[in-house]
């Protein structure tokens, strides 16, 4: 693996060394990368400078929709803990949890979330040297104030990093070490687009109040793994959990007024497909914004290069259930989205 400050050989030239394989799209493959794409105007015919300071876009408000089931189950768990303590002191627990949202305004909070929950790391000095020029140019093109977002590295061989809340922008190790500068800039444009349009603070609030529910989900998955490893113990634990949950749902239906509470208690069965669809939609929205910034052609080449290197199919693999529950769209869906957003015919994407 080559270093980020010297991506292809020891001499700093952007050509493969004697024992190295050139990355997808290198001129030695017969289809060199095109020049940097021109900046495309936004829907109103002007540059999209400072659009992230306007009112939140539709993709931002969908974060609130996805936050409903997470917040509800977080509240259920916090109330359960408060009840176990005793509601005399338990109300203090509930109040502290609600007021803890003020912590998201502390810069150290986002850093702790990035390190310990998303398993990201800060770039090294050499990696910063590779990232700084393309990151600075991207921020200028997007009209974003320098220093508003921070770059972190995700140890992953995927084409894009896991979307993170707040002002933390992740980039994968594969993109950092494999892509030449203009293609790395296109990959960063996609990552940055997840945070534009008013999503930064909304996504951070959404994630913060979902932490108890996400912790509960981790416990449930751990119990499920235990049930598979120890069937006898698993049957006892699983039976108890099923009966307890069924009793809660039955009580909500019997004593609740209307259908809101029963539906909320059924969200573990209703919400996952909806949340997966919203996640796929957000990825395509980020692709659209990157294309509108002028990175459509290069971003498509990044997707094709990753697909060729990892021998992945353009469509979705697996069963129908896996497709419905997938949080990322297929590569062909992303390519179609970029083509439509940029308004460029497929012949302009390059010889792939």
Automatic annotation (TrEMBL):
Signal peptide: none annotated. It comes from the Bacteria. One of its GO terms (biological process) is proteolysis. InterPro entries: Peptidase_M48. Residues 32-41 have a biased composition (Pro residues). The keyword Transmembrane helix applies. Residues 127-340 form the Peptidase M48 domain. Residues 1-53 are annotated as: Disordered. GO terms for molecular function: metal ion binding; metalloendopeptidase activity. Keywords: Hydrolase, Membrane, Metal-binding, Metalloprotease, Protease, Transmembrane, Transmembrane helix, Zinc. The chain crosses the membrane at residues 60-82, 88-106, 230-253, 259-278. Its cofactor is Zn(2+). Binds 1 zinc ion per subunit. It holds the Pfam family Peptidase_M48. Belongs to the peptidase M48 family. This is Zn-dependent protease with chaperone function. The lineage of its organism: Bacteria, Bacillati, Actinomycetota, Actinomycetes, Propionibacteriales.
